[in-house]
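Go through this fold for my students:
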Amino acid sequence: MTDLAMVPLRLAFQGMDERTVKLFRMFLQGPCRKQAELVSDGQAADACLIDMDVQRATELLERERKIHPDRVRILLALNDCTSSPEEVFVKKPVQTESMLQAIRRVREILESRRSKEAERAKSEPDTIPLRTVAAVEKPDGSVSKVAALMDEQSFLSYLGVRDDIDPANPTQVAAVRYDPREYLQGCFESACALALSRQQALRVETPWKPLVVFPQTRRLWIDADDAQLRAACGLRINNLAHMDIGRAHAQTVKDLKVTPIDPSETPVDPERLIPLDAFLWKMAIWTSKGKIPVDISLEREIVLKHWPNLTRFLLIPHTMRIAALLCQGSHTVCEAAQSLGIRQQYVFAFVSAAHALRLIEQRPKRQADRVEAPPPRPEPERISFLGKILKHLRMS
């Protein structure tokens, strides 16, 4: 067991009233010797504790499986109701030894995951465990990876887990918003847009590292590997420790120090040139971390203008399904996730990346088809008693 075993296991909880939570906290601190603790912040939990004998237990369990599919669950019940190797059963009434055994089992599962991730990290040049999707043979005969797929576990481990939101709840909506201009993403997008508009090779001093853009070949160079770039993308500009220029707010074109260069006189290793679109795409994914840019409306429907060149991109879970859905028709981002039966954060990350390449078009939300009321039927002609007699005489 690693040193992590000395740290209390953080447990979210479901199906417990305030009194039960208080008693269970005392139980974990006392008889269980602080081997675990209940936490109110579900995002920070290592596992989830669910009372399966409450009225809405099945609903709570299904919701937990959907929102946190990779989180270990401890099920408290009179009878064993586990259905997964990573669900741990504790029989009621809960005894100290059975609870300690459950905590040890959760630690074993988490330790096994860490070991597998470490083994995969050793076998990959990047620290994120990626699966190669395609490869291309270069003219010189060497083979280079051109696309890699993050599985769901990798995405959630490295970019975080976010609960689905109610788009009608302003607080929840605010929690999944981010402004690219507050991060390096905004600087890099501005730098690339400037070079493309001028059709001139530029060296751009960003708040982090210099960026050299070659618009004719749609390639760029930066003295950083993926691990360094991913770490820098997660920090707001004001929090970057290393600043290559004097100001901390170089967020727009006018703030960037730009120097035209001659590509023929710029010694850059061709192996280190990055396709511009692939760079902007992965940078947006690493910055968003499952959030969505502030200028993408949750009320309006979005559509993918055309299919992106995914053969060179970092692919997040369900990339192909999301792209296909948004190419076929328009949906709000939350409706897209619901339609595909996937976590909203995958759609948010995809839309953030596609938006960085200007592939997203926003449209007004379609109104539900209205059932047209039939035209009012003309009121029957009112015939007086004398008129009825005259009509009768005419017909006779």
